[in-house]
Design a protein that fits this description.
heterodimer, A: about 300 residues, alpha/beta, 6-stranded mixed beta sheet, about 35% helix, about 20% strand, globular, B: about 250 residues, mainly alpha, MetI-like fold, 11 helices, about 85% helix
């Protein structure tokens, strides 16, 4: 993990940032991280990001000059209609894709390929089918010969996976698979968690439990989370800030500060303030969803 | 369930025997085709002598030696071609030109190059086993979803760790399919190569034919069939042991 000029970078970044929120729980102990020697880094700076697929004549502009600054330890949800390029943005941050123009800076450094400090979870689980749950969860630390048995045990306990150590992924339910995937990611102790609609394949009940689990995990440790979703309620429930994206080509349309108290649980969705925020986000995304639908029809 | 299937499988083999017995002992008696009792007698006679077993061991050894060499060469080569576009462009076209040539067609050319008959037979079996293993390895590697490699690198795996923990295990089911096919083809080409040489079960078969010892011809055919079957079963068993995650998927 690279460690450098964090202070300079933050000052620089703060000037750029337009919408800042003060997290109610961001007390002075932010620098103290359990399970890790590294300090609370994890800023993401997306600058003039443009991604074009295809070649001359048959180009598709997925993302167009997008700017977004995410602070260390912030929980940001990216809300957008399907096909708006939000996954593309995330793959650029993960290091799977190179931007066509612009750049993605993490802790002030340009992203150069995937890195264990940036953990990724997708909608379909990517647990290795040929490894047991235990082998999957300890995969990251094992690759660097730094397995902490106590920590692995804590994760199994925290994620409710005890007793499934020797099972293979396909033997688990969808919700369990996502918990195992989350455990695998946390075993690596990433600064940044990139989550691409991780719960959208789950039934409503399991989804709610997973959202609460994720909030718990995030309250416990200081990590930056970038969470992509097309679910307005989910976006507000989880986030410090909701970034609403336009239909393709993707840009930031709107940023909504979520000033609901933390720690939160799923009961917060009944509050007046939540409804107000939800209405605002729904209005913001409505036109974009319509445009995205027209685009999809035009292509069909 | 398992018991019912065993019975069904036995019925299949018994039906084959019954058709043979009826065909040679009741329907076409005047053609003097070898009947099951004649073949059984010939087998007992052959099995009590050392010559026959010597040829069984010789042929089995030839198959296994060449087969293992083919696997040791084809699997790494397949991993390389499957992973690297440069290796694919440099190697694959030549291999694709050589692949459709029946291994036995190399026999005349090999007599000029290798002289030694033992090596010629070994090489022909090697060729027969090599291509199915190679192609299935390449297919297995290229069939692994890119997402798994991405996940591995996001978790901090180096490219050699990714090869060992993602590419190889991910390709293994396909590699085993290749290994099972290769075992069958190794026995097929063994017999072809031995027909043209002067040792082994293939030669035993040919020699019995030219000496009009037809029951011995059938003995050789059946023994080759059983050896091939047992060999493939062995590879399948090894595969099932190494792929517990696939096995439990089908249960």
């Amino acid at each position: 993990m690279s460690e450098h000029d964090t202070n300079d970078e933050r000052t620089d970044a703060d000037e750029r940032s337009t919408d800042r929120t003060d997290r109610p729980d961001s007390a002075g102990d932010e620098e103290v991280r359990s399970w890790t020697e590294s300090s609370g880094t994890g800023t993401v700076n997306i600058q003039d990001l443009t991604k074009v697929y295809g070649t001359d004549g048959d180009e598709l502009v997925a993302v167009d000059e997008m700017d977004l600054h995410i602070e260390a330890e912030e929980f940001v949800t990216v809300l957008g209609p399907s096909g708006c390029g939000k996954s593309t943005v995330m793959e650029c941050v993960a290091g799977y894709l190179d931007p066509t123009e612009g750049e993605v800076l993490v802790n002030g450094e340009p992203v150069d390929g995937p890195d264990p400090s940036r953990g990724v979870v997708f909608q379909e689980n990517r647990l290795f089918p040929w490894k047991t749950i235990n082998e999957n969860v300890r995969f990251g630390p094992q690759m660097r010969d730094s397995v902490d048995e106590g920590r692995i045990e804590t994760l199994f306990d925290q994620m409710g996976l005890e007793g499934f150590e020797e099972s293979y992924p396909h033997e688990l339910s969808g919700g369990m698979q996502q918990r195992a995937e989350l455990a695998r990611l946390l075993a690596n102790d990433p600064d940044i968690m990139l989550m691409d609609e991780p719960f959208s394949g789950l039934d409503a009940m399991t989804k709610e439990l997973m959202q609460e689990k994720l909030l718990d995990v995030w309250e416990d440790d200081d990590r930056t989370v970038v969470f992509i979703t097309h679910d307005v309620e989910e976006a507000i429930l989880l986030a410090d800030r909701v970034v609403v994206m336009t239909a393709r080509p993707g840009q930031v349309k709107d940023v909504i500060d979520v000033d609901l108290d933390r720690p939160r649980d799923t009961n917060v969705v009944t509050s007046d303030r939540f409804n107000e925020l939800q209405r605002r986000a729904s209005e913001s995304i409505h036109d974009e969803a319509e445009r995205a639908m027209e685009q999809a029809e035009g292509r069909a | 369930m398992e018991y019912v299937r065993r019975v069904e499988q036995s019925v299949s083999l018994l039906a084959l025997l019954a058709i043979w017995a009826v065909g040679t002992m009741i329907v076409a008696t005047d053609l003097s085709l070898p009947t099951p009792p004649q073949v059984a007698t010939a087998f007992v006679e052959a099995a009590t002598g050392s010559y026959f077993w010597g040829e069984v061991v010789r042929s089995t050894f030839r198959v296994y030696l060449s087969y293992v060499i083919a696997a040791v060469v084809a699997i790494p080569l397949g991993l390389l071609i499957g992973r690297s576009e440069i290796a694919e462009d440099l190697l694959f076209p030549s291999l694709e030109v050589l692949r459709p040539i029946p291994p036995i067609a190399w026999f005349p050319a090999l007599t000029i190059i290798l002289f030694n008959q033992e090596n010629i037979v070994r090489f022909i079996i090697f060729l027969a086993a090599f291509f199915p293993i190679l192609l299935n390895t390449i297919e297995g590697v290229q069939g692994i979803e890119a997402e798994y490699s991405q996940a591995a690198s996001s978790l901090g795996a180096s490219s050699s760790q990714s090869l060992r923990h993602v590419v190889l295990p991910g390709a293994l089911p396909s590699i085993y399919t290749g290994l099972v096919n290769a075992m069958g083809l190794a026995w097929v080409s063994l017999v072809a190569a031995e027909l043209l040489s002067s040792t082994g079960l293939g030669y035993y078969l040919w020699n019995a034919f030219v000496s009009n010892a037809y029951p011995d011809v059938i003995v050789a055919i059946l023994v080759i069939g059983v050896l091939g079957y047992v060999s493939s079963a062995l590879v399948r068993w090894l595969g099932a042991r190494q792929l517990p995650w696939l096995q439990s998927e089908t249960v």
